[in-house]
Amino acid sequence: MKNRFVKGAIVSAMAATLLLAGCTSNGDTKMVSGNANVSLKGVPERFTKGNQLRIKVIRKIGGDDHTAQFLAGAKQEGEALGFKVDVFTANGDTAKFHDAINQALDQNYDGYLISHGDDDATINDVKKLREKGKSVVTFDSNGKLEGVDGVTLTSQDDEALAKLSLDQLVKDTNGKANIIYLWVDGFPPMVRRNKVYKDTLAANPGIKELERFGVASADTSVQTQNAVAAMLNKYPKGKIDAIFATWDAFAIGAARALKEAGREEIKIYGIDVSNADLQEIQRQGSPWKYTAAVDPKLIGAVDMRLLAKKLAGEDTPKTYNLEASLVSQKDLQSSKKPVNMVNLADIIPGWGKSDAFDEDWIKTLKKYYKK
């Protein structure tokens, strides 16, 4: 009798452990326990059937704070909805990026968030996902993905980002300046930003491009720093007025090069923002005067909400652009305390906040899983 009691207790303990771990013997992920006091009435059935949904976030570029913030936003929002979220960045390695998508397909996730899939191979990858009935949201990826049934293509409003930064450059220089252009081809957001750049130069013939450089890699800021340092040797003081950087990894590298060379009379106008960027912009003497940006953490969160709506079988748009803001050094330095990505909202009203796709049932799920 005693042996049977002990064995029964062991079996019960093992069963409880498996339940708390959230796994069954066949590898399925069980629904995580939530707040029993919160009613799930109105929440789509797919989220209340007992199985925890699994999401894979795969980003081609990496090695920068923008990527880290984006992934953190997606993961935090997904976990707030009770999802199991796995993230991966290929750090600019195209082969690793596509391998990750195909491996994730074999691993049978419920939903996929694909970031910076710029080539046509990404279209084939996404089609495979859709053929298996998987939900897919893409960010800053090949524009042709808009034509794949059931896929939403999201982006920052790249035209607005470029225009905000360039218009400020034109205003500050009265339309007459010799500039360095930091840009890389091949990425959809860069293509959109480049169009605005070309239009701006056409409308302002007094803005002259002296040099251009750009590479997307795991050490973009280092390569940019070296390239800008080399360029500075060709142009003495007074020959370069400004740098237009279409990515914050470019701006960070340029700022370092200018500081080391003692050439901080050259002003930087950038795009994108992160904690590292804000720290540099606030530094006394920093040449980085303006950056146009969308909160990368918010982008990840909004994309995850879109993915949740797809998993629920609800209608979603083919495309969605997130609104851009202009961040100025003057405003940051006027703050009584250091500004970071969290309290940037004190400087820019509405920063980091959006109710886009934040449905009532999504709010209910967040309350249910709130720790």
Q: Strand pairing plus helix content: what structural class?
A: alpha/beta
Shape: globular
Note the main sheet.
Answer: 6 strands, parallel
| Whole-angstrom Rg | 24 Å
What does this structure look like?
The chain is globular. Helix 2 runs parallel beside helix 10 and helix 5 runs parallel beside helix 6. The two termini are about 40 Å apart. A six-stranded parallel sheet has the order 2-1-3-4-5-11, sandwiched between helices. It has a six-stranded mixed sheet with strand order 7-6-8-9-10-12, sandwiched between helices. The longest helix has 20 residues. The chain is built from twelve helices and twelve strands. The N terminus is likely disordered. With about 375 residues, it is an alpha/beta fold. Strand 1, helix 2 and strand 2 form a beta-alpha-beta unit.
Concise structural overview:
This protein is an alpha/beta fold and 371 residues long.
Name its key features:
371 residues, 12 helices, disordered N terminus, alpha/beta, single chain, six-stranded mixed sheet
Reconstruct the topology from this structure.
Layout: H1 2-21, E1 54-59, H2 65-80, E2 84-89, H3 94-106, E3 111-115, H4 120-131, E4 135-139, E5 152-156, H5 158-173, E6 177-182, H6 188-203, E7 207-213, H7 220-232, E8 242-245, H8 248-261, E9 267-271, H9 275-282, E10 288-293, H10 296-311, E11 319-322, E12 325-328, H11 329-333, H12 360-369
Parallel strand pairs: 1-2, 1-3, 3-4, 4-5, 5-11, 6-7, 6-8, 8-9, 9-10
Antiparallel strand pairs: 10-12
Helix pairs in contact: 2-10, 3-4, 5-6, 7-8
